[in-house]
Design goal:
Length: about 525
Amino acid sequence: MSLEQKVAQLFVTYVHGQAPDEVHPDNLRDFGVGTPAEVVAEYQPGGVVYFDNPTRDNIDTPEQIARLSNGLQRASRVPLTVATDQEMGLVTRIGAPATQFPGNMALGAGRRAQDAERAAAITARELRAMGVNQDFAPDADVNSNPDNPVIGVRSYSGDPALAAELTAAQVRGYQQRYLSPHGVSATAKHFPGHGDTAEDSHSTLPRVDRTVEEWRAIDAPPFEAAIGAGVDSIMTAHIRLPRIDPSGEPATLSKPAIDLLRHDLGYDGVVITDSLGMAGVRQLHPDAEIPVLALKAGVDQLLMPVDLGLAIDSVVAAVRGGELTERRIDQSALRVLRMKFLRGVLSDPLVDESRVAGSVGTPQHLAAAQAITDRTVTVVRNEALPLKTTSALVTGWDDGTTRTLAGLLGGTALPTGSTPSEPRIAQAVRAAASADLVVVLTNALSGEPAQQALLTRLLAVGKPVVAVAVGNPYDVAHTAAPNWLACYSHRPGSMAAVAKVITGEVRPSGRLPVDVPGPTPYPIGHGVTW
């Protein structure tokens, strides 16, 4: 391989569009060519990553994803890593009919490593059927800060040991054995640990004041467990750790931070950056310098540079100018190629498009997902459950979620949103008067006085009220509802599990995977059953 080819192998880029040969104007703007396949043919990157947002919309149906994957592979001289963020729960790029799971914190509440491994294995099998061979999951962060705005339920737990156990289980589930046609490369993230931040690295450069000793005790165990399970890749965080690297560089560009991974934890696999378009990595340096600095720090794969051509040219120029050695490029290129080889990507990059429908969202997968989800609901406080209902009112956060649960309970939905207005609260109070059960869905209630007011007013009606935290479980400490559930997810499967717990079809077995501070605190491990 030429120097340019080896350098290109280190980059993972986005593309615009859902069909390999369909011209998309944003490809012309960002890459100078029209179609996703032309982007791959022109730049020959090591990988691509799929998104489902309006600006980078690659995802429609499983069959379409498989066609896109095959088209991009045919355009590449070296088979691609095809990646996405299918963490499940809050971060899910590919929705139904692909099998859906409730996410990491729900699995942490279930506390069953076999469930975590099974969920990852099902996800991997379906991804691979669609031509996706790398999952940017699991999230290995220990959520030690309740105010964390970007991790939260993406983390398994605030307990390093529990997070480590489930991280290792999911790595095993995602990857299967070497050369398995049903496994994908797992990516533990966000090293050295994003769980103690109070800011979002998408929009700023967060600071984490861990010492090395604190890091070893709190943040390192899940990554160490992932390495022990043979994880293919580990993603860096755009966070600064002044007590580990006083330079102020984000961990992605920090040799002391990457040395913790390479030397302290003995990791010799692929290290990939988080997106190089995020504000957390762009505050201190121009875009042309960032890939070079990341490679000098010890990173291998460079994810989503703002300008792919500029990024590749900058690394090539750094080698030709002596700032980087070609041996250093070889080291990272070999790690990337080795990962592709071990997952069977080099030998068999294409998928059978005719078999996708029979592999994704199968009845067996869907049944397994619901059984796993049923074991995750945590009853934090209980005075009235279980109970039967014929005229339930489901109100509170999110239109779709309230309607889903109301349908499952045979009741009425009255969504009020994240910041209920006074007229909407009054309407809910009036509706509650004719209900035999009121279910209030909350999300980030501690920071939303209007949600708290809705719950307080409904409690005063005198009907049985069940509050359900559909996001972070920290909501349960902030309003004295007599019946509080935490389900960690607003996905339909979680609503089905909540309905089963409320009506007594399922006995609750979930336990809090984090400490819940607040006016009425609850310790990790707390959970009520009957």
